[in-house]
Write a structure and sequence with these properties.
236 residues, 9 helices, 2 strands
Amino acid sequence: MLIFWRLVFGHLLSDFTLQTNFIVHWKQKSLWGMFVHCGTHFVLYALLCAPYLSDAWVDTAALRLNGWACLSLLFLAHFITDEWRVFMIAHNRIEDDTLFFLFDQAAHFACLIALLPLGLWGRGDGLMPESWPVLGCLAVWATHTTTVLVYYIEKELFGGTFPEFDEKYFTLAERFVFGVCFLLPGIWGFLAPGAWGILTYQARVSFGLDYSWFGYYAGLACAAFCGVLAGWIAPF
């Protein structure tokens, strides 16, 4: 599972944190944009899993693949999946809604699981051999992933639009710090989130940022959940 969590972290970073609005529009219009997006996945996977790329990730009687081969297959699978999604949406075959977004993510994770490094299981890695990739996953989930998921839900329920630049990054910072507050020791882990929530609410009002109550509470709830999990996982 050591490599699996690194791959999941790389996927979340590439598919959410590093997939800017520019990349999203570019890959919808050009194969070069899709190559850049999928190439970002490949590069991050390679960097995060660098010590293990020469090892056999899939090692069965019928098939043996090292890390480089698996990353190449992941690149191809991601390219095909995203190109199919772009085609289906562009030609009005399927609506770009929450269900299709979740299906797309499920397909990507299925590819990661299919190429789970079985050849490394004998090392006794266990379910969570190192905490930092999992903490990284929680950080991305509390911020960028939640932003996208909330957007899709709001679009269906209230006809919402994707947040503008200032609101988006204010919200990302708001959720990140809110989640980190739960890592504070003792009573501060209860007081700090409340104080931060009040402070950011006042800041939103002062700056006139447009936001929905659903997005506000759903985002903080996800950040709180990730923060509590991080406190349980973190080595300190």
